[in-house]
């Protein structure tokens, strides 16, 4: 006897809406059980992970700060995933965008450069991420190379380039041999929205990206093109939509937004180039995109939820002595629960014998 998944003919909109909530609760129950096995109280962990960050003003600001790169990257990934193309290398595009933007910041350091520096840094970061994203797209359209492997492998190339620059040509000669660049000038630093606030203008960029994407995906021919390409590739071909141009376009958009997230994090939070400038935002954004159902508003909510796990994980490490890796494990559990919930909503389980009978 085996079980098969058969597509449901009628899918309830209510079930579609409830599925992510059920997945999130299930993930929390699984994580609570793991925490109980580790000898800690699941109730205390829930308080530390969720309630305390939501009741502290500083943590609320940090929540927006950590959600900003997640939202930017996940919005870009939604273009690829809607077209049934798998960009797994947003972490590398994030890194390359930070490198491109930081190049200008470091080359204008100590000069009288004015207000033009920061906008040009942002444009360079978008360009760097887009160009890096186009590499797996070109390899796929020209040689048929699997985009999952190439985009993923390019992550490690970008990280090695960043490490080389931080320890070599871009290292601060007065930095006591630490692998980091000089601190960016104020003209190259992304300002805060409010005085003495950690929330910077990158949060505005994320909101703009979400609004623009909502319009593009819901009300333009390009959005329909992505949906048709993902759902029915042959129908898209018959409609005259080029698979090659679609692949190049979505990878460029995805890489550009990931690159923007890179310079936003470096310029708005870190303030200099270091060997490590990411908290695995590029990989975590995959979870955010699917948790948000590839919907712009859903991605906004999902980015805040996942950012909450980052802050809660840091608190749990200090207060409950729980390993920080538990946060990454929880994010993985959350993704699996979301995918399982989607499968249960979209498909019906049917048990069948080897001969094909029910």
TrEMBL record:
It is found in: Cell membrane. It comes from the Bacteria. Pfam families: BPD_transp_2. Keywords: Cell membrane, Membrane, Transmembrane, Transmembrane helix. The keyword Membrane applies. It is a multi-pass membrane protein. The keyword Glycoprotein does not apply. The chain crosses the membrane at residues 21-43, 63-81, 93-110, 116-139, 201-222, 242-264, 285-310, 330-349. PANTHER family: ABC TRANSPORTER, PERMEASE PROTEIN, GUANOSINE ABC TRANSPORTER PERMEASE PROTEIN NUPP. This is ABC transporter permease.
